[in-house]
Amino acid sequence: MNGVMIQGDSGKSFIAIGLCRFLTRRGLRVCAVRLQAYGSRRLHSS
What we know:
Strand content: under 5%
Number of helices: 2
Largest sheet: none
Shape: globular
Structural class: mainly alpha
Radius of gyration: 15 Å
Mean pLDDT: 78
């Protein structure tokens, strides 16, 4: 399985959507997944 991960502070969704569209237009199958950090507030709050 090949994959790409886009990380950063801002603009990730915009870049990811553009990349997905670019790859789809070239005939590749694309699956976008957004990871969530559930419970992070509870773990890091004091």
